[in-house]
Write a structure and sequence with these properties.
mainly alpha, 23 helices, single chain, 538 residues, 2 domains
């Protein structure tokens, strides 16, 4: 027990970046960290205000009773995402595995210390996403001491069951991957597919809420009256929490009991299998007896060989793959789904006077162009590829190839990830909904431009300021300044393009195309600067 507190402290400092901020001596780096913290704070404020407005809207349409269910379910979805993405770096295949398991500490303490940051992130989801909805409910029905206490308890326990389920899924994925000869690749690929399945499932569930043929406030009232039942069916613990807040003691006992039991059970299972599974994952999975010899082929140039090496690194690093692959896949899913529905069905569902097929098709082309662009702007394998070299950076630095070829290979992989997905998804949307050649051009060029921007800017930033001193791939992939800057710049550029496209007077589409061309030109200049950066230690 004496070693549990230090373990917990180390994980807390590492998970939230506090340790890096405390130990960073470079003033510029500290300023970037502070600016990143300010940006996160602004996003939190925006999320709180948005959820409060959602809660007030549901109160106005007479659906206040659905708010506790909706709050717990929303927190659950957020916890599933955060846990599934972060579990691989914290519980499975962590770099200091040998050191941690050799310590005179019970395995359950190791597991709890690594699960605690995940639960803390779940509590943050409760505070940001759930608390505004529950507050709106309490103000609508009247605040009582008992209701307030139970509401706080419900929000505190809201992350327990979804986090336990996400850890079980992550465990199963890691276990299945550890039984294959290519554990790293299998873990990353299955993880990406699971994340995409979750997103698509949420889209299908939420998309089906508005299928009523009624319009106006009457339709909202009907939907609001049915919302609690729909949300409860989707996530039964939300119904238990809502009944508990309403004063039901059996529901409270059931909610607390299931939440507590799920946490204890997951810790027990992970404590039992932590060592054998991580041993297999760190060893690369089960190896087939008599591995196939290396296939001989035509000699390849250095650039091709380097791109193949980057591709293997991408597939073989689960957190790297899970953080960069969902964007292009979701772009393809969005393009196929919306095109399959078609402008006619959407025009009928909108039930807005004057919103005919042509109007809706034009609107879809404009919105979808920048929705696809946003998916690509959030995707940059190059933003962390240099840092991921880590302790093996000396191989690239001493290889008989030009630094431009090494950085160019990292940039090429990022463009190969975003480029084909941009062209294919944009072409699908253009064929399905574009009414004019200019709309079709926008559908393709907008995501292509944002993908190029994120790739080129990421390559430049990570090559200039690489971080080789990491203990888990999670750090350069999720917490590096280059990734944060790429995401921020991509968001601003996408917003600027969408704002330009929204201009009236028949110039919107042309303005959007102009913004995309400017971004493409800037990306080419950034790429030229990136490939001329010498390889260096930080």
């Amino acid at each position: 027990m004496a070693s549990f507190a230090p373990l917990l402290r180390v994980q807390a400092l590492g998970a939230f970046g506090v340790g890096r901020l405390m130990n960073e001596r470079d003033p510029k780096a500290r300023r970037r960290l502070v600016l990143a913290a300010v940006g996160i704070g602004l996003l939190v404020v925006y999320a709180v205000v948005y959820m409060w407005m959602v809660g007030q809207t549901l109160v106005l349409i007479g659906a206040a009773g659905a708010l506790p269910c909706l709050a717990v379910t929303t927190v659950g979805v957020g916890c599933v995402f955060s846990t599934f993405v972060k579990a691989n770096g914290l519980l499975f295949r962590f770099r200091d595995f040998d050191l941690v398991v050799s310590m005179p500490t019970p395995l359950w303490a190791v597991v709890v210390s690594r699960v605690a940051p995940l639960y803390s992130m779940g509590l943050a989801c409760s505070l940001v996403l759930g608390a505004p909805l529950v507050s709106a409910y309490l103000l609508a029905v009247g605040v009582t001491p008992a209701g307030l206490v139970v509401s706080v308890l419900a929000l505190l326990l809201a992350p327990a069951v979804p986090m336990a389920l996400a850890l079980v899924v992550s465990f199963c994925v890691a276990w299945a991957a550890s039984r294959t000869p290519f554990a790293d690749r299998a873990l990353g690929i299955v993880g990406v597919l699971a994340m995409v399945a979750i997103v698509v499932g949420v889209m299908l569930v939420t998309g089906g809420a508005g299928t009523s043929g009624q319009g106006g406030l009457d339709a909202l009232a009907v939907m609001g009256g049915q919302m609690r039942g729909a949300v409860s069916a989707l996530w039964p613990p939300s119904a238990w929490a809502a009944d508990a807040i309403g004063g039901s003691m059996p529901a409270l006992a059931l909610y607390v009991g299931v939440s507590t039991a799920s946490g204890v059970a997951v810790v027990a299972v992970l404590s039992r299998f932590l060592v054998p599974m991580n041993s297999l994952l760190c060893a690369g999975g089960l190896r087939r007896a008599g591995s196939a010899p290396t296939r001989a082929g035509a000699p390849r140039g250095p650039l091709v060989a380097l791109v193949r090496k980057e591709f293997r690194l991408w597939l073989g690093t689960p957190i790297y793959l899970m953080n960069t692959a969902p964007g292009p896949i979701l772009a393809l899913v969005i393009a196929i789904a919306t095109t399959a529905v078609g402008p006619d069905a959407i025009a009928s569902a909108m039930n807005i006077p004057g919103a005919g097929r042509d109007t809706v098709a034009t609107l879809m082309a404009e919105v979808l162009s920048w929705a696809l662009a946003f998916c690509m702007a959030m995707t940059s394998t190059a933003a962390s590829s240099t840092s991921l070299e880590g302790s093996a950076r000396w191989i690239a630095q001493t290889a008989p190839v030009r630094p431009s070829a090494i950085i160019g290979a990292k940039l090429a992989l990022s463009l190969l990830v975003t480029g084909p997905a941009s062209v294919i998804s944009g072409t699908i949307v253009a064929v399905g909904v574009a009414r004019t050649p200019l709309d079709a051009i926008l559908c393709v060029i907008a995501p292509l431009a944002m993908g190029a921007l994120s790739s080129c800017l990421g390559a430049l930033l990570d090559a200039r300021r690489p971080n080789y001193d990491w203990t888990s791939e999670y750090e350069p992939v999720k917490r590096s300044a280059s990734v944060g800057i790429c995401v921020g710049v991509g968001f601003l550029a996408t917003f600027a393009g969408f704002a330009a496209t929204s201009l009236t007077g028949g110039v919107g589409t042309a303005a959007g195309v102009a913004v995309a061309l400017v971004v493409l030109t800037a990306s080419a200049l950034v790429a030229r600067a990136a490939v001329h950066i010498p390889l260096q230690d930080r």
